[in-house]
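hiii so um. not sure if this is the right channel but i have a protein structure encoded as C-alpha coordinates and i wanna go backwards to a sequence. like what aa goes where. can anyone help
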Protein backbone atom coordinates (compact mmCIF):
# COMPACT_ATOMS: atom_id res chain seq x y z
CA UNK A 1 0.00 0.00 0.00
CA UNK A 2 1.64 3.31 -1.06
CA UNK A 3 1.55 6.32 1.29
CA UNK A 4 -1.80 8.03 0.81
CA UNK A 5 -0.38 11.33 -0.43
CA UNK A 6 -0.99 12.41 -4.03
CA UNK A 7 -1.16 15.54 -6.18
CA UNK A 8 -3.87 16.14 -8.76
CA UNK A 9 -3.71 18.54 -11.70
CA UNK A 10 -7.00 20.04 -12.85
CA UNK A 11 -6.98 20.54 -16.63
CA UNK A 12 -10.39 22.26 -16.53
CA UNK A 13 -9.04 24.88 -14.11
CA UNK A 14 -5.95 25.48 -16.26
CA UNK A 15 -8.21 26.07 -19.27
CA UNK A 16 -10.44 28.36 -17.24
CA UNK A 17 -7.50 30.42 -15.94
CA UNK A 18 -6.08 30.76 -19.44
CA UNK A 19 -9.43 32.13 -20.56
CA UNK A 20 -9.14 34.73 -17.77
CA UNK A 21 -5.86 35.89 -19.31
CA UNK A 22 -7.57 36.19 -22.67
CA UNK A 23 -10.45 38.14 -21.18
CA UNK A 24 -8.03 40.55 -19.47
CA UNK A 25 -5.93 41.04 -22.64
CA UNK A 26 -8.47 40.51 -25.42
CA UNK A 27 -6.30 41.92 -28.23
CA UNK A 28 -3.16 40.02 -27.32
CA UNK A 29 -1.91 36.57 -28.11
CA UNK A 30 -1.17 34.56 -24.99
CA UNK A 31 1.99 32.69 -24.16
CA UNK A 32 1.25 30.05 -21.54
CA UNK A 33 4.45 30.09 -19.47
CA UNK A 34 5.32 26.46 -18.74
CA UNK A 35 8.85 26.83 -17.42
CA UNK A 36 9.93 24.84 -14.35
CA UNK A 37 7.96 21.85 -15.58
CA UNK A 38 4.82 23.98 -15.87
CA UNK A 39 5.30 25.49 -12.41
CA UNK A 40 5.56 22.00 -10.96
CA UNK A 41 2.41 20.65 -12.63
CA UNK A 42 4.26 18.62 -15.28
CA UNK A 43 4.46 19.83 -18.88
CA UNK A 44 2.45 16.91 -20.22
CA UNK A 45 -0.35 17.36 -17.68
CA UNK A 46 -0.45 21.15 -18.02
CA UNK A 47 -0.56 20.84 -21.80
CA UNK A 48 -3.97 19.15 -21.47
CA UNK A 49 -5.41 22.32 -19.97
CA UNK A 50 -3.37 24.95 -21.80
CA UNK A 51 -3.56 23.73 -25.38
CA UNK A 52 -5.74 26.72 -26.32
CA UNK A 53 -2.75 29.03 -25.75
CA UNK A 54 -1.17 30.76 -28.76
CA UNK A 55 2.24 29.54 -27.72
CA UNK A 56 4.31 28.06 -24.91
CA UNK A 57 7.09 29.99 -23.20
CA UNK A 58 9.75 28.17 -21.22
CA UNK A 59 13.48 28.13 -20.82
CA UNK A 60 14.74 24.57 -20.63
CA UNK A 61 15.52 23.08 -24.03
CA UNK A 62 14.43 19.62 -22.91
CA UNK A 63 11.08 21.09 -21.97
CA UNK A 64 10.82 22.60 -25.46
CA UNK A 65 11.47 19.14 -26.91
CA UNK A 66 8.76 17.70 -24.69
CA UNK A 67 6.24 20.26 -25.93
CA UNK A 68 7.09 19.40 -29.54
CA UNK A 69 6.78 15.68 -28.70
CA UNK A 70 3.25 16.39 -27.52
CA UNK A 71 2.49 17.37 -31.11
CA UNK A 72 2.52 21.16 -30.61
CA UNK A 73 3.38 22.77 -33.96
CA UNK A 74 2.79 26.38 -32.89
CA UNK A 75 5.16 28.92 -31.34
CA UNK A 76 7.53 27.99 -28.53
CA UNK A 77 9.62 30.77 -26.95
CA UNK A 78 12.84 30.22 -25.02
CA UNK A 79 12.61 33.00 -22.45
CA UNK A 80 16.35 33.07 -21.73
CA UNK A 81 17.46 32.15 -25.25
CA UNK A 82 20.49 29.99 -25.94
CA UNK A 83 22.80 29.05 -23.07
CA UNK A 84 25.58 28.05 -25.47
CA UNK A 85 26.06 28.24 -29.26
CA UNK A 86 24.97 24.68 -30.02
CA UNK A 87 21.54 25.36 -28.50
CA UNK A 88 20.84 27.28 -31.69
CA UNK A 89 20.94 23.99 -33.61
CA UNK A 90 17.96 22.76 -31.62
CA UNK A 91 16.23 26.09 -32.21
CA UNK A 92 16.66 25.61 -35.95
CA UNK A 93 15.60 21.96 -35.84
CA UNK A 94 12.50 22.49 -33.69
CA UNK A 95 11.68 25.98 -34.95
CA UNK A 96 12.00 27.52 -31.50
CA UNK A 97 11.72 31.26 -31.10
CA UNK A 98 14.22 32.59 -28.61
CA UNK A 99 15.06 35.59 -26.50
CA UNK A 100 18.29 37.45 -27.19
CA UNK A 101 19.42 39.26 -24.07
CA UNK A 102 23.17 39.78 -24.42
CA UNK A 103 25.72 40.52 -27.13
CA UNK A 104 27.26 37.04 -26.81
CA UNK A 105 23.99 35.55 -28.00
CA UNK A 106 24.15 37.83 -31.06
CA UNK A 107 27.72 36.61 -31.73
CA UNK A 108 26.51 32.98 -31.53
CA UNK A 109 23.69 33.71 -33.97
CA UNK A 110 26.08 35.41 -36.38
CA UNK A 111 28.20 32.24 -36.42
CA UNK A 112 25.23 29.86 -36.63
CA UNK A 113 24.59 27.97 -39.86
CA UNK A 114 20.92 27.58 -40.60
CA UNK A 115 18.54 27.43 -43.55
CA UNK A 116 15.71 28.63 -41.37
CA UNK A 117 16.15 32.21 -40.11
CA UNK A 118 15.14 32.54 -36.47
CA UNK A 119 12.34 34.55 -34.91
CA UNK A 120 13.91 36.32 -31.95
CA UNK A 121 12.64 38.34 -28.99
CA UNK A 122 15.13 41.08 -28.20
CA UNK A 123 15.06 41.60 -24.48
CA UNK A 124 15.39 44.99 -22.86
CA UNK A 125 16.57 45.49 -19.31
CA UNK A 126 14.13 48.27 -18.52
CA UNK A 127 14.92 48.27 -14.80
CA UNK A 128 14.86 44.77 -13.37
CA UNK A 129 18.59 44.29 -13.93
CA UNK A 130 18.39 40.60 -14.55
CA UNK A 131 18.53 39.97 -18.31
CA UNK A 132 18.55 42.24 -21.34
CA UNK A 133 20.14 45.21 -23.05
CA UNK A 134 19.88 48.58 -21.34
CA UNK A 135 17.64 51.12 -23.09
CA UNK A 136 20.80 52.88 -24.32
CA UNK A 137 22.27 49.70 -25.84
CA UNK A 138 18.96 48.36 -27.17
CA UNK A 139 18.83 50.06 -30.54
CA UNK A 140 22.34 49.06 -31.57
CA UNK A 141 21.59 45.45 -30.55
CA UNK A 142 18.47 45.62 -32.75
CA UNK A 143 20.51 47.01 -35.66
CA UNK A 144 23.10 44.24 -35.31
CA UNK A 145 20.44 41.55 -35.17
CA UNK A 146 18.54 43.03 -38.08
CA UNK A 147 21.62 42.78 -40.29
CA UNK A 148 22.02 39.02 -39.71
CA UNK A 149 20.77 36.60 -42.37
CA UNK A 150 20.16 34.13 -39.51
CA UNK A 151 17.42 36.39 -38.14
CA UNK A 152 13.91 36.57 -39.48
CA UNK A 153 11.54 38.72 -37.42
CA UNK A 154 12.60 40.67 -34.32
CA UNK A 155 10.07 41.12 -31.52
CA UNK A 156 10.65 43.43 -28.58
CA UNK A 157 10.36 42.25 -25.02
CA UNK A 158 10.89 43.31 -21.43
CA UNK A 159 9.96 41.98 -17.99
CA UNK A 160 8.50 43.85 -15.01
CA UNK A 161 9.89 43.71 -11.51
CA UNK A 162 6.92 45.30 -9.70
CA UNK A 163 3.74 44.69 -11.67
CA UNK A 164 2.25 43.17 -8.51
CA UNK A 165 3.06 46.02 -6.14
CA UNK A 166 2.82 49.72 -5.39
CA UNK A 167 5.90 50.63 -7.43
CA UNK A 168 4.04 49.48 -10.54
CA UNK A 169 5.23 49.44 -14.12
CA UNK A 170 5.15 53.08 -15.27
CA UNK A 171 8.92 53.69 -15.13
CA UNK A 172 9.77 50.49 -16.95
CA UNK A 173 7.10 51.08 -19.60
CA UNK A 174 8.49 54.57 -20.14
CA UNK A 175 12.04 53.24 -20.54
CA UNK A 176 10.83 50.54 -22.93
CA UNK A 177 8.76 52.89 -25.05
CA UNK A 178 11.54 55.42 -25.27
CA UNK A 179 14.14 52.89 -26.45
CA UNK A 180 11.73 51.00 -28.71
CA UNK A 181 9.97 54.12 -30.16
CA UNK A 182 9.99 53.67 -34.00
CA UNK A 183 11.47 50.12 -33.92
CA UNK A 184 9.21 47.74 -35.80
CA UNK A 185 8.19 44.39 -34.35
CA UNK A 186 5.67 42.83 -32.02
CA UNK A 187 5.80 43.73 -28.33
CA UNK A 188 5.70 41.43 -25.30
CA UNK A 189 5.75 43.05 -21.88
CA UNK A 190 3.14 41.70 -19.50
CA UNK A 191 3.44 38.90 -16.97
CA UNK A 192 0.42 37.73 -14.94
CA UNK A 193 0.34 40.71 -12.60
CA UNK A 194 0.60 43.16 -15.48
CA UNK A 195 -2.12 41.31 -17.42
CA UNK A 196 -4.56 41.42 -14.54
CA UNK A 197 -3.75 44.80 -13.00
CA UNK A 198 -2.55 47.02 -15.86
CA UNK A 199 -4.36 47.40 -19.16
CA UNK A 200 -1.21 47.60 -21.24
CA UNK A 201 -0.95 47.29 -25.03
CA UNK A 202 0.88 44.04 -25.87
CA UNK A 203 1.00 41.85 -28.96
CA UNK A 204 1.94 38.87 -26.79
CA UNK A 205 1.31 38.57 -23.05
CA UNK A 206 3.17 36.01 -20.93
CA UNK A 207 0.75 34.36 -18.54
CA UNK A 208 2.50 32.30 -15.89
CA UNK A 209 1.23 32.08 -12.35
CA UNK A 210 -2.31 33.12 -13.17
CA UNK A 211 -2.67 29.97 -15.29
CA UNK A 212 -1.86 27.93 -12.19
CA UNK A 213 -4.52 29.41 -9.94
CA UNK A 214 -2.42 31.63 -7.71
CA UNK A 215 -3.02 35.38 -7.46
CA UNK A 216 0.08 37.24 -8.67
CA UNK A 217 -0.60 40.09 -6.26
CA UNK A 218 -1.65 38.09 -3.20
CA UNK A 219 -2.44 39.15 -0.47
CA UNK A 220 -3.72 42.40 -1.97
CA UNK A 221 -6.03 40.27 -4.10
CA UNK A 222 -6.87 36.59 -3.87
CA UNK A 223 -7.89 34.13 -6.56
CA UNK A 224 -11.57 34.81 -5.94
CA UNK A 225 -10.98 38.45 -6.82
CA UNK A 226 -9.41 37.46 -10.15
CA UNK A 227 -11.86 34.55 -10.62
CA UNK A 228 -9.02 32.06 -10.92
CA UNK A 229 -9.33 28.41 -9.94
CA UNK A 230 -6.78 26.18 -8.18
CA UNK A 231 -5.06 23.92 -10.68
CA UNK A 232 -3.24 21.65 -8.26
CA UNK A 233 -4.53 19.71 -5.28
CA UNK A 234 -2.13 18.22 -2.77
CA UNK A 235 -3.99 15.76 -0.62
CA UNK A 236 -3.34 12.98 1.85
CA UNK A 237 -5.02 11.22 4.75
CA UNK A 238 -4.89 10.98 8.53
CA UNK A 239 -2.73 8.04 9.55
CA UNK A 240 -3.12 8.51 13.33
CA UNK A 241 -5.16 10.43 15.89
CA UNK A 242 -3.87 11.62 19.29
CA UNK A 243 -5.84 12.81 22.29
CA UNK A 244 -3.88 15.54 24.09
CA UNK A 245 -4.28 16.73 27.66
CA UNK A 246 -3.62 20.32 28.66
CA UNK A 247 0.16 20.81 28.77
CA UNK A 248 0.99 18.05 26.25
CA UNK A 249 3.30 19.10 23.45
CA UNK A 250 3.43 18.10 19.78
CA UNK A 251 6.32 17.14 17.52
CA UNK A 252 10.02 18.05 17.34
CA UNK A 253 11.09 20.85 19.61
CA UNK A 254 7.77 20.65 21.46
CA UNK A 255 6.90 23.93 19.80
CA UNK A 256 3.18 23.52 20.40
CA UNK A 257 1.59 23.03 23.82
CA UNK A 258 -2.09 22.15 24.23
CA UNK A 259 -3.90 24.65 26.44
CA UNK A 260 -6.74 22.19 27.07
CA UNK A 261 -7.79 18.71 26.03
CA UNK A 262 -7.49 18.53 22.25
CA UNK A 263 -7.72 15.93 19.47
CA UNK A 264 -5.11 16.15 16.78
CA UNK A 265 -4.61 14.16 13.59
CA UNK A 266 -1.32 13.04 12.06
CA UNK A 267 -1.15 13.51 8.28
CA UNK A 268 1.02 11.58 5.84
CA UNK A 269 2.69 14.69 4.45
CA UNK A 270 5.96 16.34 5.41
CA UNK A 271 8.71 18.51 4.07
CA UNK A 272 10.12 15.60 2.06
CA UNK A 273 6.88 15.81 0.05
CA UNK A 274 7.46 19.49 -0.63
CA UNK A 275 5.23 20.83 2.13
CA UNK A 276 6.95 23.93 3.57
CA UNK A 277 8.84 23.20 6.77
CA UNK A 278 8.48 26.83 7.80
CA UNK A 279 4.69 26.56 7.95
CA UNK A 280 4.03 27.25 11.63
CA UNK A 281 1.08 26.34 13.84
CA UNK A 282 -2.23 27.43 12.31
CA UNK A 283 -1.25 27.05 8.69
CA UNK A 284 -4.62 26.39 7.01
CA UNK A 285 -5.54 22.85 5.98
CA UNK A 286 -8.82 21.07 5.21
CA UNK A 287 -9.82 17.84 7.00
CA UNK A 288 -12.83 16.20 5.36
CA UNK A 289 -13.35 19.57 3.67
CA UNK A 290 -13.43 21.51 6.97
CA UNK A 291 -10.88 24.27 7.44
CA UNK A 292 -8.57 23.84 10.41
CA UNK A 293 -4.87 24.45 11.11
CA UNK A 294 -1.59 22.64 11.59
CA UNK A 295 -0.07 22.28 15.05
CA UNK A 296 3.64 22.13 15.87
CA UNK A 297 6.56 21.66 13.51
CA UNK A 298 6.31 19.98 10.13
CA UNK A 299 8.54 16.91 10.08
CA UNK A 300 10.00 15.00 7.14
CA UNK A 301 7.05 12.68 6.48
CA UNK A 302 4.28 13.90 8.79
CA UNK A 303 2.53 16.92 10.15
CA UNK A 304 -0.14 17.37 12.81
CA UNK A 305 -3.52 19.11 12.49
CA UNK A 306 -6.08 20.32 14.98
CA UNK A 307 -9.22 18.17 14.83
CA UNK A 308 -11.33 20.38 17.12
CA UNK A 309 -13.54 21.69 14.25
CA UNK A 310 -13.85 18.17 12.77
CA UNK A 311 -14.92 15.87 15.61
CA UNK A 312 -15.89 13.10 13.19
CA UNK A 313 -12.41 12.87 11.67
CA UNK A 314 -10.62 9.54 12.07
CA UNK A 315 -7.79 7.54 10.54
CA UNK A 316 -8.36 7.64 6.77
CA UNK A 317 -10.00 11.06 6.74
CA UNK A 318 -9.09 13.10 3.68
CA UNK A 319 -6.71 16.00 4.23
CA UNK A 320 -6.35 18.75 1.63
CA UNK A 321 -3.02 20.53 1.96
CA UNK A 322 -4.07 22.89 -0.85
CA UNK A 323 -6.45 22.87 -3.79
CA UNK A 324 -9.85 21.21 -4.10
CA UNK A 325 -11.25 19.39 -1.08
CA UNK A 326 -14.35 17.24 -0.75
CA UNK A 327 -17.87 18.70 -1.05
CA UNK A 328 -16.78 21.72 -3.08
CA UNK A 329 -14.33 22.98 -0.44
CA UNK A 330 -11.26 24.93 -1.58
CA UNK A 331 -7.99 25.94 -0.01
CA UNK A 332 -5.92 28.38 -2.04
CA UNK A 333 -2.22 27.61 -2.25
CA UNK A 334 -1.67 31.33 -1.55
CA UNK A 335 -3.13 30.98 1.95
CA UNK A 336 -0.70 28.18 2.74
CA UNK A 337 2.21 30.05 1.18
CA UNK A 338 1.55 33.15 3.25
CA UNK A 339 1.53 31.13 6.47
CA UNK A 340 4.90 29.66 5.45
CA UNK A 341 6.40 33.04 4.53
CA UNK A 342 6.62 32.21 0.84
CA UNK A 343 4.61 32.48 -2.39
CA UNK A 344 2.37 30.07 -4.27
CA UNK A 345 4.97 29.81 -7.06
CA UNK A 346 7.48 28.20 -4.71
CA UNK A 347 5.07 25.68 -3.21
CA UNK A 348 3.73 24.39 -6.51
CA UNK A 349 7.24 24.05 -7.93
CA UNK A 350 8.45 22.21 -4.84
CA UNK A 351 6.14 19.18 -4.75
CA UNK A 352 8.62 16.32 -4.39
CA UNK A 353 9.12 13.64 -7.03
CA UNK A 354 8.06 10.99 -4.48
CA UNK A 355 4.50 12.39 -4.54
CA UNK A 356 2.52 10.68 -7.32
CA UNK A 357 0.98 13.39 -9.51
CA UNK A 358 -1.71 12.80 -12.09
CA UNK A 359 -4.46 14.50 -14.01
CA UNK A 360 -7.70 14.70 -12.06
CA UNK A 361 -10.82 13.25 -13.59
CA UNK A 362 -12.89 16.01 -15.21
CA UNK A 363 -15.06 17.79 -12.61
C1 LIG B 1 10.47 36.52 -18.75
C2 LIG B 1 9.27 36.03 -18.03
N1 LIG B 1 8.05 36.26 -18.54
C3 LIG B 1 6.94 35.85 -17.92
C4 LIG B 1 6.98 35.20 -16.73
C5 LIG B 1 5.69 34.79 -16.05
O1 LIG B 1 5.54 35.47 -14.85
P1 LIG B 1 4.26 35.20 -13.94
O2 LIG B 1 4.34 33.78 -13.50
O3 LIG B 1 4.41 36.14 -12.79
O4 LIG B 1 3.09 35.45 -14.82
C6 LIG B 1 8.22 34.94 -16.14
C7 LIG B 1 8.29 34.28 -14.85
O5 LIG B 1 9.07 34.55 -13.99
C8 LIG B 1 9.39 35.36 -16.82
O6 LIG B 1 10.60 35.13 -16.31
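sure thing!! here u go:
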Amino acid sequence: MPRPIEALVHADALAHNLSCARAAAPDARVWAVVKANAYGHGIERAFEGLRAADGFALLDLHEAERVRELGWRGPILLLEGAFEPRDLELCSRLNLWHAVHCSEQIDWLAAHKTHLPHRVFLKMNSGMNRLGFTPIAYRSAWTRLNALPQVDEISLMTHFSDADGPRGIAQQVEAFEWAARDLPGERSLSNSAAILRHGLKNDWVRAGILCYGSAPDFPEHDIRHWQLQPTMTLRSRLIAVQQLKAGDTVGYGSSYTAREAQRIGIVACGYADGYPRHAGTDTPVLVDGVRTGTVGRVSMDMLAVDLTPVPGAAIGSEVTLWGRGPLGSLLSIDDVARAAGTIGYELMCAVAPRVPMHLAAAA
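oh and The pocket of pyridoxal-5'-phosphate is lined by residues 33, 79, 159, 191-193, 206-209, 216 (CB under 6 Å).
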